[in-house]
Amino acid sequence: MARRERAAVERLHGVTRERFLRDIYPRRKPVVLTGLELGTCTTKWTTDYLSQAEGSKEVKIHVSAVPQMDFLSKNFVYRTLPFDVFVRRAAEVKHKEYFLTEDEKYYLRSVGEDVRKDIADIRKQFPILAEDVHIPEYFEKEQFFSSVFRISSAGLQLWTHYDVMDNFLIQVTGKKRVVLYSPRDAPYLYLSGTKSEVLDVDNPDLEKYPLFVKAKRYQCVLEAGDVLFIPALWFHNVLSEEFGVALNVFWKHLPAESYDKTDTYGNKDPMAASRAIQILDRALKTLEELPEEYRDFYARRMVLRIQEKAYRNDYG
Q: Which reaction does it catalyse (predicted)?
């Protein structure tokens, strides 16, 4: 079996906004930023403090009987709990009270008041906790899209996916392992929309996903206080090694009009990309009018034309 290529994500300490924008951002590669001023959240956000700060407001959570949560097969259920009860349960290993099993996993991904219209913004959904956080504003205020508050049980692993906006993953407490794949390796990730079908990136089923060995794996471990820059379109798979609290901050890298105005999660493809995919689908439908031999030939010509006109050849 071919050995998959691996690389560690670069870690940089005390990076200023100016250095980030000048030297790091243009490279469009993930990097872990350490030593940034994040506010008092890194020391204050214990389970006791979190429970008391936001009290018994109800939150909608994911609950899974298995550690690997899969959005494609929907191997989890949605449940509602008071925030203080949820925090304490998520911090437990074994539960006296549970929905599915005594070792079920919990995951909170904050949403807007109206999930169809409102974006996640910690200042609106968790205003008391927001006062403890200093978000590194390495982007212009008008570029801000959302700030997503996340809490995960120890051992929880989230599906591999990409987002269409740049973001910082701020690890406030706990420890996470993050595995990333470049956008150029999309052909090897068996995509279904924005998500990869390969759930177990450590022990993939290579009979089912033989091309996965060609995808280069980038990896890092985030400790409390670390900030991971994830450029748009980079695939990422997150494993919470400990109970932890994190904050994702998304911002618009493209002009605002490039994005779908109905997108509240930051995961709908840019408008031009959506139109292009629709056109491609119509073209493929048109090819079905031809016999198989002709269909195969002209499909290959289409692929070559796309490669010639749209592929980059300057990846490092």
A: 7-[(3S)-3-amino-3-carboxypropyl]wyosine(37) in tRNA(Phe) + 2-oxoglutarate + O2 = 7-(2-hydroxy-3-amino-3-carboxypropyl)wyosine(37) in tRNA(Phe) + succinate + CO2
pLDDT tens profile 74-115: 999 999 999 999 999 999 999 999 999 999 999 999 999 888
d(CA 82, CA 57) in angstroms, rounded, equals 5
Which alpha helices (H) appear in 93-149, and where do they start and end? Answer: 122-125, 127-130
Q: Measured between alpha carbons, how far is 104 from 63 in angstroms, rounded to an integer?
A: 7
241 closest CA partner among 10, 46, 67? 67
Contact 121, 161 (CB under 8 A): no
Q: What is the residue whose two structure tokens read 């000048």?
A: 22
Residue recorded with tokens 């406030």: 172
* Dihedral sign, Cα of residue 264, residue 44, residue 78, residue 64: positive
Residue 245: beta bridge partners?
A: 151, 173
Encode burial over 259-269: b for 16+ CB neighbours within 10 A, e otherwise.
beeebbbbbbb
For residue 310, which of 270, 266, 273, 271 has the smallest C-alpha distance?
Answer: 273
pLDDT tens profile 48-80: 999 999 989 999 999 999 999 998 889 999 999
Give yes or no for a contact between 196 and 238, defined as CB atoms under 8 angstroms apart. no
What tokens does 62 get? 């994911």
pTM of the model: 0.94
Domain locations in the chain as residue ranges: 6-258, 271-310
pLDDT digits (tens, 9 = 90+) for 272-314: 999 999 999 999 999 999 999 999 999 999 999 999 999 987 6
* Superfamily of chain region 6-258: Cupin (2.60.120.650)
